[in-house]
Structures are given as C-alpha cells and as structure tokens.
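Let's practice the habit of predicting before peeking. Look at the sequence and jot down your guess about where helices and strands might fall. Then scroll down.
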Amino acid sequence: MNAQKLSKRLEAVAKFVPTGAVMADIGSDHAYLPCYLIHKGTASYAIAGEVVKGPYESAVGQVQKENLTEKITVRLADGLAAIEEADHVDTVTIAGMGGPLIVSILEKHPEKLQGVTRLILQPNIHAKVIREWALAHQWAILDEEILEEDDKIYEILVLQRGQMELSTAEILFGPKLSLRKSPAFTKKWLREKDNWQRVLQSIEGAEQTPEIEEKRAELTALIHLVEGVL
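Done guessing? Here is the structure:
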C-alpha cells in the first residue's frame, strides 16, 4: 500500500469523500489516504492528524515525498484537536480503529465538528456503537459498506447531519447493509452467530445464577436477530 495504491479498505473509504472536500483524516498514520485524495483531485485540501509521534513523523515524511506540503497539513494532536476553525473542514475520515475508540474521538472535541457535513467512519469492530452515537447526536446514515480483506471483515459508515430512526436490528446490522445482504455481510453474521451459539452451549452446564440467565437471554436474542435478517 502507498499513496497511489491504497488497501481495499481505504479505497472504499476514499470513494465516499465528496469532490472538492476539505477533509481531515484523524489517525492518519502514513497519510496515505489524504495523499491519495489530493493526487486523485478528489480533496481540495487535507489535514492529516496523528496523536503518536512516530506515525506523525511518517506522515510528515510521506507528504514531503509526494510534494504535497502546500495541499496537506500534518498535525500532532489528539483526535479532532487536529482541526482548526480556519481550516474550514467539511469532511472527516476516521479509519482502522474500534468503534468505541472512534466514538470517544468524536465526543472529546464535539465543537470541532461544527462545520463538518460528512463523517466517513471505518470501525474494525463494534460498528453498532457508532450507529448509537449517530442516533443520539443528530447524524443520519447516508450509506454503508461492508467488505472483506485479508480474511477480516470491515464496515464503513457514511454519516450526514439529520434525524433517523433505527430498529434494534438496524442498529446492530446497519440499515443499508441488512437490505443488501452482501456475501461479506452474510459471512460476518454467520460467524458471529456461531460464536454466540458456542458461548451459549458452554454456559448450559453452569450454575444457573441471575447473571447466567441474563447472558443466556442476551445471546438467544442476538441469535434470533441474526436468523431474522439472513
């Protein structure tokens, strides 16, 4: 992977960035995504934010190597603190970390999102908590994608400002993804169902405490949700 050829996962993130966007990539690592978007003419300007010094230095080096120092600013900052009001950022990408960490980044500096109209979020796990956050903070799902790369399955959520309503199943599976039922979607949830059934079997012989009963009920409900959507 490099600034001209992204991974399948980051390429999928890139396609949701609007043409002409001023974008901020939070947790940018080598800044491959911002460099790619500038080279393609998709983004007009980009901020690459990194909280760790090593990746920050890698991003600085990459931007210099690509001769993009006039189009990409690299900042060492904690999450959304990399965004300044004068940047006029309208699109934020956060990719390659867990859903709860992405939510914590969004919640730590909410004022930085004031001018942002699109969030493109790619959680490695627990996309559900991002949908819950979106519901609570007046963001609506514009689109979703699920894909498999190197035997790992990733979800991408594209959010825009607005109201939405989601059922329990839609919060878990994604309203767009559960309608399309792609091979990656089916594979992910059959795998999850198998895991839950194994846990359910493992607690069958356990002492029936209130905690065990609660866990059994939770797992049974999740299994029924999967069976209902597939």
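How did you do? The chain has two domains: 8-164, 187-229.
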